């Protein structure tokens, strides 16, 4: 949230490819706002930056799990949210998680 334009919005961070062994966590004090954005899409916003993502059951599961907090290993997180050990749904969700890292909503602990 940008405080109605009175607070400078930090620029998005660089893209970071996530491996299954990376550990991520939601950044403290940075809730992920979700707003429907057209048919089958959702805007995810944090700290004044936003990204439009496909509104899938897997994305909903990912965001709900991130909302609970804690450190999460990427591989098991993607598996729990997609039920897919490999494949396009899993990689699409990995891409969405990488977008959340770029928005500074999620931090990589390694």
Which stretches are low in confidence, meaning pLDDT under 50 for 5 or more residues running?
none
- Trace the largest sheet across and list its strands: 5-1-6
Tell me the major beta sheet.
3 strands, antiparallel
Structural class: alpha+beta
Q: Would you mind describing this structure in some detail?
A:
By secondary structure, this protein is α+β, with helices and mostly antiparallel strands. It is 32% helix and 23% strand. It contains 3 helices and 6 strands; from the N terminus they run ββββαβααβ. It has helices spanning 57-67, 74-82, 88-102, and strands at residues 23-26, 33-36, 41-46, 49-54, 72-73, 106-108. The strands form 2 sheets. A 3-stranded antiparallel sheet has the order 5-1-6. Strands 2-3-4 form a 3-stranded antiparallel sheet, with helices on one face. Helix 2 (74-82) packs across helix 3 (88-102). The longest helix has 15 residues, at 88-102. The N and C termini lie far apart (27 Å).
